[in-house]
Amino acid sequence: MKIHPIQEQQFKILNYKAAVFLGNQKAKAMPFDSFSKNALTSLSKTETNKKEALFLGLSEIEKSESKFRAFDFEKEGLVLSLNYPKEAFIQDVANILDRISEEEKKKLYLEFNFQLTKNGDKTGLEGHPRQSKTKANDGLFNTREKLNQAIQKFSENNSVQIEGEEELSDELTLLFNAITELYTTVGKKQNRAHDFTLDIHTLCVLQNVMNDPDYETLSKEDKRTLQITALLHDITKKEGINDEAHAETGAAAASLILERLNFSNKKRKDVSKLIEEHEWLKNYNSPNKNEDEKTQYARNLSKRLNSSNLAKMEAILTKADMLAVKKEGAFFERYKKAFYQGKKELLTFSKPKKNFLYLFNCKITSK
């Protein structure tokens, strides 16, 4: 299995044409703990090459004949492996930090945008590891160098492997090397409602999005927006629990990730909005709401999305997300009646309004 560091993709990337939009609008404030806020706001904005690599990867997997479109991600026993596994990275980090104080560990965790967590005997990873350029005179120079080397190996020079599927593995590696935060999803357990780990769930959502008939009615630009949203919609989800805040924290994280990749203000805003609202059906279908209240919720949601295109994309994303919770779409089957009712109302309220005054004036003028 060959490794695809992002540098090895440059000759391909130079031949791939994509519209590049620039912007510097800051993401709106979201509720974070101090660790998450520090981790997200310290992201760099120097990775335009990775943006182009992301476009290249998405253009490969969206082809009707691609391995990705038809691959069975629900296959019994399927796992994504990494050339440098997350468990090995965690162990290496633990060894690197073994001889420093707890205060020094906390300082470095904030600086490197991640931390190791303990759950019984198991050590986990929270956050998205990123290299540090800090050169503080605090006696931690060697520790920083070792952490930077481990993070580069895990987040920059890593590769995805699916046994017996080299072509698909290469396609996924290109995506993961473009959005390195995806490496932290590999093998990450979700709450008991889910049959799949977060990496498999995310890829199923992306696949379901692209295989939805409504997806083909979108413009090329909207397809790109929805693909990126699918990849990032659960990017901050905490392991093994019902993370109620993940839609809001994920929306802010996605905006900052896309800012680092030099996406436009509009693209960042659209992706963030779709992620922030991606669990709308849970609120729409609350047992505490009567039919009138559900209708009002759909009306308010359409106002927050403020675009018929975004409303259509939100419906596609929600269906794709629900289909990827349980095997064979069992979760979606349970709630599909509520989904189709909510979708109908949402799209109805999101239709562009006709300018009746303009039409009336045209009629008068024609006489």
What is the overall silhouette? globular
Order of helices and strands: HHHHEHHEEHEHHHHHHHHHH
| Number of helices, counting only DSSP H or I runs of 4 residues or more | 17
Instruction: Name the strands of the widest sheet in spatial order.
Output: 1-4
Structural commentary:
With 367 residues, this protein is mostly helical. The protein folds into 2 domains: 6-83 and 158-276, no CATH class; 288-367, no CATH class. Helices cover 55% and strands 4% of the residues. It has 17 helices and 4 strands. A two-stranded antiparallel ribbon has the order 1-4. Strands 2-3 form a two-stranded antiparallel ribbon. A hairpin with a 2-residue loop joins strand 2 and strand 3 (122-127). Helix 5 packs antiparallel against helix 7 (141-156) and helix 9 crosses helix 15. The longest helix is centred in the C-terminal third of the chain and has 20 residues, at 330-349. The radius of gyration is 22 Å and the shape is globular. The model is unreliable at 1-46 and 356-367 (pLDDT under 50).
List strands and helices in order, with pairings.
Blueprint: H1 10-14, H2 34-41, H3 48-61, H4 67-70, E1 81-82, H5 86-96, H6 102-112, E2 114-119, E3 122-127, H7 141-156, E4 160-161, H8 166-178, H9 198-211, H10 220-232, H11 246-260, H12 265-276, H13 280-284, H14 291-305, H15 308-323, H16 330-349, H17 356-365
Antiparallel strand pairs: 1-4, 2-3
Helix pairs in contact: 3-8, 5-7, 9-10, 9-15, 10-12, 10-15, 11-12, 14-16, 15-16
Concise account of the structure shown:
This protein is mainly alpha-helical.
